[in-house]
Amino acid sequence: MALWAYHLTNLALAALLYTLLGRLALTLLLGPDSGNFIHRAFVRLTDPVVAPVRVVTPQAVPHALLLLFAAVWLILARLGLAVGFAASGWLSAPGTGAGA
């Protein structure tokens, strides 16, 4: 029953991660203040992730590196989610579940 909760949360985190990496690529190609429609969409989608990272990151860090830090935090969140669900017994290793 809790497996769907894991997969939906993991999917949302993965979508944010890949969108953030897309924003990083567009920022490197177009610049951080580009007026490109796609770049602005990526910025609006990922700003809720970047804002908390900006709070805990020193102001001396360049913007592109801040995006990488945000990506690392999302990777750690996905890892923590998997470890948390596995430790609680809601995820099982392949071949050890109920159908094995």
Provide a descriptive summary of the structure in words:
The radius of gyration is 17 Å and the shape is elongated. The protein is built from three helices and no strands. It has 100 residues and is an all-alpha fold. The protein starts with a helix and ends in a 13-residue tail after the last helix. Helix 1 (3-30) packs across helix 2, helix 1 runs antiparallel to helix 3 and helix 2 packs across helix 3.
Rounded to an integer in angstroms, the radius of gyration calculated over CA atoms is 17 Å
**Overall geometric form:** elongated
Number of helices: 3
Distance between the termini: 17 Å
| Helix percent band | over 70%
Quick structural gist:
This protein is an all-alpha fold and 100 residues long. It is 73% helix and 0% strand.
Describe the protein's topology:
Elements (H helix, E strand, L loop, with lengths): L2 H28 L6 H20 L6 H25 L13
Helix pairs in contact: 1-2, 1-3, 2-3
